[in-house]
């Protein structure tokens, strides 16, 4: 308990320094505020934000969007009690639900399944042509992210350990700057930074290949347990709008790309290309046993998180993996599938 107390104190102190930018000011002080964390990877979350759907369907609330650079920073903000919802990768969620963090949040949505939108790229000048060739090389990734998890899995698959390379903790934009200076030989990261690296680098392995080999990664929507308990109707609305966005990605990819392009600051064509690199579920797939599951019957996302935690424990990233029940309890399936059909 003392470990977690000290950790929380340290993380709260660091929150002000975390990579984030606070949403617009001037909100109505007479209304309660819903606090959402988002990241700049292409997903339905950005469509919801761009179109102001939550503001439209929840007029009695202020909706505050805060941009974060990685899941580790989002975990920090949840521990500090500063968020209600967050868009975060499965590896940081597995870490967040494990000791010593044990963050009281639950997975309520699957934003996307990582495919070619997250990958390990080596600089052309490095001469590296495969993962095994990274021995002794400098590799940047955002620690405690899905990319970090996938990098460790890729090294393991190639017969290497973290000790065989020089790992450098850098957020996506910082890793791009280091790449351009020649300070790193390779980077494991995600879109949109990934596309910039590909211009002068070679893709060694993508998360799609690691998923096939049994190490899939997901981008998830999580909600604070306290918020979900107090405001289940708001969670329902949020899930419905996220499902609406998945429908746009499937049925009107041009509109989806246009919205995401505005949020990321790229062209619609670039956004369309990035969307094609991820895997986006339908509401029917989302509520199947393969993914989130249904009310009272948590799906395989729990097993995915458990497997991720076991791997993180093997790699010395967390002390130990909790049992499967911890992750099943960590899925918010209340009202599924009906809530997404209304």
From TrEMBL:
GO molecular function list: transmembrane transporter activity
Cell compartments where the protein resides: Periplasm
InterPro entries in alphabetical order: ABC_Gly_betaine_transp_sub-bd (IPR007210), Solute-binding_3/MltF_N (IPR001638)
GO cellular component terms listed in the entry, alphabetical order: ATP-binding cassette (ABC) transporter complex; periplasmic space
Signal peptide: 1-18
Keyword Signal attached: yes
Domain Solute-binding protein family 3/N-terminal: 33-295
Keywords from the UniProt entry: Signal
SUPFAM superfamilies with a match to the protein in the record: Periplasmic binding protein-like II
GO biological process terms, semicolon-separated: alkanesulfonate transmembrane transport
Family: Belongs to the bacterial solute-binding protein SsuA/TauA family.
PANTHER family: ALIPHATIC SULFONATES-BINDING PROTEIN-RELATED, TAURINE-BINDING PERIPLASMIC PROTEIN
Protein's recorded name: Taurine transport system substrate-binding protein
């Amino acid at each position: 308990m003392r470990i977690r107390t000290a950790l929380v104190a340290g993380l709260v102190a660091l929150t002000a320094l975390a990579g984030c930018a606070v949403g617009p000011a001037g909100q109505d002080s007479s209304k309660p505020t819903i606090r959402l964390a988002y990241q700049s990877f292409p997903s339905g979350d950005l469509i919801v934000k761009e179109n102001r759907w939550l503001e439209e369907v929840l007029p009695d609330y202020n909706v505050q969007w805060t941009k974060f650079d990685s899941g580790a920073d989002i975990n920090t903000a949840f521990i500090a009690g500063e968020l209600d919802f967050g868009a975060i990768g499965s590896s940081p969620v597995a870490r967040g639900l494990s000791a010593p963090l044990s963050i009281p949040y639950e997975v309520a949505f699957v934003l996307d399944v990582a495919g070619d939108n997250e990958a390990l790229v080596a600089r052309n000048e490095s001469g590296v042509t495969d993962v095994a060739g990274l021995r002794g090389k400098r590799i940047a990734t955002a620690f405690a992210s899905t990319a970090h998890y996938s990098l460790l899995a890729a090294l393991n698959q190639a017969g290497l350990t973290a000790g065989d390379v020089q790992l450098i903790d850098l957020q996506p934009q910082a890793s791009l700057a280091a790449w351009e200076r020649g300070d790193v030989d390779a980077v494991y990261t995600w879109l949109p930074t990934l596309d910039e690296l590909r211009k002068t680098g070679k893709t060694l392995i993508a998360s799609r290949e690691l998923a096939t080999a049994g190490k899939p990664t997901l981008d998830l929507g999580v909600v604070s347990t306290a918020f979900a308990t107090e405001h289940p109707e708001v969670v329902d609305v949020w899930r419905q709008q996220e499902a609406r966005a998945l429908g746009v990605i499937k049925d009107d990819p041009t509109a989806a790309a246009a919205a995401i392009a505005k949020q990321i600051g790229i062209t619609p064509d670039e956004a369309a290309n990035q969307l094609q690199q991820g895997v986006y579920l339908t509401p029917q797939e989302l509520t199947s046993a393969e993914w989130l599951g249904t009310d009272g019957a948590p799906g395989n996302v729990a097993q995915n998180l458990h497997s991720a935690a076991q791997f993180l424990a093997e790699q010395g990233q967390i002390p130990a993996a909790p049992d499967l029940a911890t992750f099943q309890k960590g899925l918010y399936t209340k009202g599924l599938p009906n809530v997404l059909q209304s």
